[in-house]
Task: structure prediction
Amino acid sequence: MISIPDDLVVDVHDLAATILDAHARTEPYFPGGQLVEINRGITSPTTLPSHVFAPEWHAAQIGGKKRVAYILKKDSSASERISIDTFASPQGVKVSGGKELTRRELEDVFWRCKTFNNGYVLAYVAQRVFDSLPPTAKLRARTSAKHEVVCKPSDVTVAEIDIVAKEACLILDHEPRPDLGPSRVNLSQHMTGFDGIMPWVFLLIGEPKSEDLETDPRVVLDLVTSQLGGRGGGGEVFSLERAFDYHEKVLPNVANELEKYVLSGKIRLSEDALRARGDALVEVVMGRLGKIASGQDNFCRYCGKEGVQARCSKCKKAYFCGSCHTLGWKYHKVWCS
Result:
């Protein structure tokens, strides 16, 4: 039985990192794919022939829309799921122009793949976690712009909007099949932003005190900004922003909104497999919240990984792993104390 104290204060930023970490360990689309090439349509791809690319890729070239293809290669002999640390191919990643990928750029590709087509599932998970908290618990949503909202778990609303992505993204995941022939592969292709309008979902946290974005104090939690190639204002792979900042400064970097968002009811996943996966993630996240409540808070505040040993050298409280302190500093420095 998971024990959650009645007076628990849940930091939404840390919760988002925890949800995404749990998701990356279980997502069904790319469990074993390693990145071998990034192609933006300027030069011919070298890992796979261009004729195997989806027809939409070539239509995008004609239409002039920005586009990018990520080519992943499965290793059928690998026994472990690919993580961010093993995502880049050991043989190197081919990039147009020959430049080397930074850790942040590699993360951008990793999370763009991991959050593909998972917006509603992850919003459902966050919603279910909030609903599972004691009514006397508190949510604390703090943004990189030093805006803070503290509210009850019930003060969370689902919002939906139609958007058009500014970049078309094609993910090709292939596995060599030498048993069928020297050049035979199993190939799956996944596309974002090629077919016009996309439904988008996010959560609004806080009490609704104004319909005017400029004075609305609520905070937007968008767990899949990375699917569009974007990041939050503090450099996170998700967005946690005051509503005005989200709609005026973050989302416009990667998408055009077609209309004002509309508030909707609770997310209900109709497909049994999706709902089962979402519920399983909720159990994992609630288990981790139970650990945090009991003092086992040594998880990375940037990537969500558990069992981290190093703490921030300034506040001596928050844990970070590897290069995450540098990547997470833009946000953490605002609240480091």
Summary: The mean pLDDT is 93. The chain has one domain: 9-264. The helical segments are 12-24, 55-63, 103-114, 119-132, 243-250, 272-293, 324-335.
